[in-house]
Amino acid sequence: MQVRSLFLLLALILVAATAEAGKNKKEKAKKDVSKCEDWRWGPCVPNSKDCGLGYREGTCKDESKKLKCKIPCNWKKKFGADCKYKFESWGGCSAQTGLKTRSGILKKALYNAQCEETVYVTKPCSSKIKSKSKGQ
């Protein structure tokens, strides 16, 4: 009987401790909530070089915040890391310029970024000649 009572007491203590920990997390999250709704966010500024982990500063009236952010090292610097585009397939190779072109339409602008609706990118044509499948 004593073992059963001890087990029940331990279970009650564990439940109480878990509930208190959850309450602390909720209170901590409430402290970070702002009443301001018109936040203006700046670009993500990497901690070193031009990509990787960094921070983004935001302002709203007299409040300011810093958020952690990350710029992928393969991002299109020309467009900004906060502008996401859906790109078409590469077009044919231009004999005059030796370049291929494709366009991208804006899919999402993060953190109120100023993005172009349509962008165009080029790359050099491949000098390799693709062979047909090996089975033929």
Automatic annotation (TrEMBL):
Residues 23-79 form the Pleiotrophin/Midkine N-terminal domain. Residues 80-135 form the Pleiotrophin/Midkine C-terminal domain. Pfam families: PTN_MK_C, PTN_MK_N. One of its GO terms (molecular function) is growth factor activity. Residues 1-21 form the signal peptide. The keyword Acyltransferase does not apply. SUPFAM superfamilies: Midkine (SSF57288). InterPro entries: Midkine_heparin-bd_GF, PTN/MK_C_dom, PTN/MK_C_dom_sf, PTN/MK_diS_sf, PTN/MK_N_dom, PTN/MK_N_dom_sf, PTN_MK_heparin-bd_GF_CS. SMART domains: PTN. One of its GO terms (cellular component) is extracellular region. One of its GO terms (biological process) is positive regulation of cell division. Keywords: Developmental protein, Disulfide bond, Growth factor, Heparin-binding, Mitogen, Secreted, Signal. Secreted protein that functions as cytokine and growth factor and mediates its signal through cell-surface proteoglycan and non-proteoglycan receptors. Regulates many processes like inflammatory response, cell proliferation, cell adhesion, cell growth, cell survival, tissue regeneration, cell differentiation and cell migration. Belongs to the pleiotrophin family. This is Midkine. It comes from Prunella himalayana.
